[in-house]
Amino acid sequence: MSIDSKIELIFLPPYAPNLNLIECYWQFFKKEILYGKHYQIFALFKQACDDFFAASNCYKEALNSLLTNNF
Predict the structure, then answer these.
(1) What are the boundaries of each domain within the chain?
(2) For residues 25 and 30, what is the distance between their CA atoms, to the nearest angstrom?
């Protein structure tokens, strides 16, 4: 690897989901979509997922506090 690279590598432990922001995001997604809910058919589950992503601005405050670099 070039020393002049503008990419900074940050090494993480082999298993550290709390240091990986996407893991925190998926945990929030599962809490909103799956916990305490049962979808009779897959189409309803898919619609709930689509609605979650379409309404992502509604979750902005919660996600901003959850997805930080302060581990």
Answers:
(1) 38-71
(2) 9
